[in-house]
Amino acid sequence: MTAETTLIILGASGDLTSRLLLPALGQLLAREPQRRVKLHGAGMDDWSDDAWRDTVRASFRTTDADAAFACLSGTTYTRADITRADELQAILDAAEGRPALYFAVPPGVAAAACEALEHVTLPAGTVLALEKPFGSDAESAARLNEVVAGLVPEDQIFRVDHFLGRSTVLNLLGVRFANRIIEPVWSADDIASIEIRYDESLGLEGRAGYYDRAGALTDMIQSHLLQVMAFVTMEPPSSLDERDLRDATGAVLRATAIWNDDPAASSRRARYTAGEVAGKHYPSYVDEPGVDPARDTETLAEIVVEVRNARWQGVPITLRSGKALGHLDAEVIVRFHPVRHLPIGFTGDPGPSVLRFALGPDTMALELNVNSGADPLHLERATLLAELGEGALKAYAEVLSGILDGDAMLSVRGDAAVDCWRIVQPVLDAWHAGKVPMDEYPAGVSSPAGWPQR
Ligand SMILES: NC(=O)C1=CN([C@@H]2O[C@H](COP(=O)(O)OP(=O)(O)OC[C@H]3O[C@@H](n4cnc5c(N)ncnc54)[C@H](OP(=O)(O)O)[C@@H]3O)[C@@H](O)[C@H]2O)C=CC1
Ligand SMILES: O=C1O[C@H](COP(=O)(O)O)[C@@H](O)[C@H](O)[C@H]1O
Predict the structure, then answer these.
(1) What is the ipTM of this complex?
(2) Which CATH number is 327's domain given?
């Protein structure tokens, strides 16, 4: 059976491939066995086809891994240095159907490989899937955009952000645009503030080689959280197709800047010291293997931005993410203004309404004030909770499904990738200039001392 697509994973022996991509492919094939996909792995390791097949089969952690594996139209492996044009050409020449090149390699290697592709003949319909971080600042991202734009059209370029494949993130669109009661209150007139938080209990987990150069701001806020923010704040698109949705995302990111243009006052950073998270001991970040203390890398970052348009002007939007915190605390929190006038006679004041979207386990909660208790005029908080469950496909399976279908709707467009760097650059500069202190927190607490607690 001829494959419709050959998925070529470059960086086949890496962490992303074994931990996320291959299990996601297994899940996708178990669910959609009619897909005709050939899988090819390429990397620096000297593996045989059989060794690669064993890795693939072991990584297909679906309920029926063998059945999912049987769906593949073939699985092969080549040892290759993907920064070399001749080695890339050989891989592409052997592909069946449409090749989809997935760069599961460090960002510098991906950029070098794209430059090598300028000297390769690409089969029609070739798809390029690039992981984050896309570039290391606005200039390098723009340069990488130019390189890839010279290779294939924009709708064949997938700048992967797996948060866009998360069901709760997609649910933001459903709740906003499919409910007549929401959109009329979705602006600065009714919303006082927005917070997007992704506090993780995981620490460095052996990823110093990448993370120590990135830090929390680049690892999470520059990419994932700004994309989530765009879904929360975009204007309603006329359709969910790739162009309309990404136009809306691009427009809102273009309107976004650091609050008051004051990066020193609108950002905080901190780094974990030794402590315990759920019974597991973590050394101080600076004592983790592979960390260079001279780099001054933060493991917790917070910035405040604003969207400068008629809908959102004046609403502070806080983006925060960190590692080795007490527990996973991942939410989009929309806080409404208080009512204009509370009729005299009510007692109790639970505060304004709040809408929360938890990013795992996925729930949505609307906190309202009600007076249904023993004292009929006493206001109390009531929460309407919806358990959303997981989407049918986990985030990376959703990403792969878009790549295999050639639907770029859930990937980051080039202009948005550059804008995300433009938004955070003033903060990076202020931190680099020492204008914002590096706070500390023992691993396991929920926030550094002196930061808002909850
Ligand atoms: N791991 C994760 O959880 C996530 C990773 N990402 C992104 O995915 C990308 C890959 O990350 P990750 O898997 O963690 O990194 P790893 O370092 O674990 O894997 C990178 C792979 O690329 C291979 N490689 C390096 N240079 C070349 C080359 N010239 N030719 C061929 N292969 C090469 C490496 O081979 P060798 O080891 O032999 O050098 C290794 O197999 C990064 O951009 C990262 O930011 C994104 C989200 C999550
Ligand atoms: O891309 C990344 O995301 C993960 C968090 O996402 P999750 O879906 O695995 O919860 C983060 O831990 C990692 O540092 C970052 O590179």
Answers:
(1) 0.97
(2) 3.30.360.10
